[in-house]
Amino acid sequence: MIDRPFTVVAIGIVATATGSAAGGAMVTITGTALDGVCAVYFASTRYRPQVVSATELRVKTPAGQTGSVKRRPRRRCR
What we know:
7 strands, mainly beta
């Protein structure tokens, strides 16, 4: 049973300080309807974000990649 419909997530800004291939840099993601996000993917690797509020998430970068990677939030987690 679903008690409310899922709201579409909108990402506004993805910000981080410089990082390295060792990973561990904190990324702040801001937008709307982020309070239901239970996973953030960096390329194909899944990470559980810290939900700060409905407008902010924080997640650490993975090791092994430098430069830009595709990020996508996921609302439904199994």
